[in-house]
Amino acid sequence: MDNNPISPSQRRGFLITILAGLGTAVTAVTLWPMWRFLAPRKGPGALERVAVARASVDLGAAHFFNFRGAPAVLLQPSPGNFAAFSAVCPHLGCIIKWQQDKGEFLCPCHAGRFSADGKVLGGPPPKPLESIPVALEGDQIMVG
């Protein structure tokens, strides 16, 4: 007489199902961050432009903003002239800072220095800051 209504093959099947579910969960938790890192970023389209009020960028000062999902900076180096750059250092991707007293950008991670026109002045950055087109439309600065 068998008192156990569950056969060994049913127990084995149940155990395999539980282990397969746990394995799937662990795999999903492991791969999700990699997918988020590698997947294209959602954001405005490639042709979208950003409008910045002219009054928000003082002479010799920098205005940081988001452009197409990444940090960017708008600068007025001389009266009425504006330049925009990616605020991401081309060395290792740190966010640059504007040093108004020196008139240059500084990457705080490895002391990379850039001129007001984005050229490399010193440090490890291999190339200049990425330039972004700028156009004036009335009281607005159109970036992109």
TrEMBL record:
Transmembrane segments: 12-32
InterPro entries named among the record's database cross-references: Rieske_2Fe-2S (IPR017941), Rieske_2Fe-2S_sf (IPR036922), Rieske_Fe-S_prot (IPR014349), Rieske_Fe-S_prot_C (IPR005805), TAT_signal (IPR006311)
Cofactor(s), by name: [2Fe-2S] cluster
Keywords per UniProt: 2Fe-2S, Disulfide bond, Iron, Iron-sulfur, Membrane, Metal-binding, Transmembrane, Transmembrane helix
Source species of the chain: Desulfuromonas versatilis
Domain (Rieske) ranges: 49-143
One Pfam family, short name: Rieske
Name by which UniProt lists this protein: Cytochrome b6
SUPFAM superfamilies (alphabetical): ISP domain
